[in-house]
Amino acid sequence: MHQPGTPDDLAEPERMWGHAVALALASAAGLDGNEYHVDEHGVLCETAGGSYWWRLRRCSEGRTVLYGQDSDGSRTHLGKTPFPYFETAPDWLPYDALNALAETRELGFVYWCDTSGWSRAPYPPGLVDDGLFCVTMLVAEREYGEEMEEYEEPLVLLDRVRRRTVDEDLIDVLLDAADEAGATSDRATRRATTLCYAELAGVVGEP
């Protein structure tokens, strides 16, 4: 990825969505140290140590927005004046959430995608980085696989998510792998959360 990031660094929204949901399901089952949350809008990732976070959010009419911050990489929030994240942004972005994050300097980057592809606001000269590198697991299968190192078949999960054929048997396989890797939290709770996330993401179906 470039520093700062560019729209060309990002993949098709559906590809990134598949990675995000697969990572969220693995995390809910107990296989990933990052914390993921899935709701009706999309997927939120927060690292356990708070070093970075990102949110991939689906909007109306097939549009997508990606935003987040890397505490080590992002420099957009450090200036004395507000950063122009929204200078050329469309009117369909979730501005209530984005403005709140910008006001508290918790925002590092905002990219949006519609029928014309990914875009972002133009950056001022001299900006070192926006922190987009923290989403590489959404773009490249190698980095996605590294995030899933405790699970032997991460691409199988990714394929099932993309084909929307996640079922309870697959969730049990994830839970078994997490248990073997040393997960100690209540299995029934992890199972219920994983199934809930799959349903909210719309990827449940018969294989």
Characteristic key phrases:
single chain; alpha+beta; 207 residues; 7 helices
Question: What can you tell me about this protein's structure?
Answer:
The structure is a single chain. Strands 1-2-3-4-5-6 form a six-stranded antiparallel beta sheet. It is 36% helix and 15% strand. The protein is built from seven helices and six strands. β5 (109-114) and β6 (117-119) form a beta hairpin. It starts with 12 loop residues before the first helix and ends in a 6-residue tail after the last helix. The model has no long low-confidence stretch (mean pLDDT 92). The chain has one domain. The radius of gyration is 17 Å and the shape is globular. The chain is α+β, with helices and mostly antiparallel strands.
Number of strands: 6
Secondary-structure element string: HEEEEHEEHHHHH
- The helicity comes to 25-40%
Shape: globular
Strand content: 15-25%
Q: Give the strand order, joined by hyphens, for the main sheet.
A: 1-2-3-4-5-6
- Domains, number: 1
Tell me about the largest β-sheet. Answer: 6 strands, antiparallel
Identify low-pLDDT runs: none
Give the mean pLDDT.
Answer: 92
How far do the termini sit from each other? 35 Å
Rg is 17 Å
The tally of helices reads 7
Given the helix and strand composition, which structural class is it? alpha+beta
